[in-house]
Design a protein that fits this description.
4 helices, Cytidine Deaminase, domain 2, alpha+beta, 5 strands, binds tetrahydrodeoxyuridine, 26% helix, single chain
């Protein structure tokens, strides 16, 4: 796909450096471009009580909301070492969290530490999704 956002990759890669991952050792960074053009980055934050851990996408969404923005235009996720084969796509829960603040055309760009791997629209990774419109919002 054309239009790979290098600035989002760099913001997500920088955020990944802050990952708190003593349990999985799997560092992830995410960076959102919101509708006002600003960038909001976050890392995964694990917890000794394992289920309390938080994905990088959640941290980035929290930053976006705290800036006053509400709409994700595109989001970059960086995870995994260069050329390891597997893609660090957002987990199911994060797909739903992203969906809350997206349109069907919102783009999700997946990178590994070495660079771009694949891009999707929100609708491609979460088709027929449930969202605010289902509740009349
Ligand atoms: N993780 C993320 O932060 N984002 C993803 O897209 C996939 C998984 C985190 C959760 C956990 O801290 C670690 O990666 C291993 O699952």
């Amino acid at each position: 796909m054309s239009d790979i956002p290098q600035d989002l990759f760099e913001a997500a890669r920088r955020a990944r450096g802050f990952a708190h991952v003593p349990y999985s050792r799997f560092k992830v960074g995410a960076a959102i471009r919101s509708e006002d053009g600003t960038i909001h980055a976050g890392c995964n934050i694990e917890n000794a009580s394992y289920p309390q851990g938080q994905c990088a996408e959640s941290t980035a969404i929290g930053g976006m909301i705290m800036s006053g923005a509400k709409r994700i235009v595109e989001i970059a996720v960086v995870g995994g070492e260069e050329g390891t084969g597997t893609l660090c796509t957002p987990c199911g829960g994060c797909r739903q969290r992203i969906r809350e603040f997206s349109t069907p055309e919102t783009r999700i760009h997946v990178f590994d530490a070495g660079g771009w791997r694949k891009s999707y629209t929100l609708n491609e990774i979460l088709p027929d999704s449930f969202g605010p419109d289902n509740l009349g919002f």
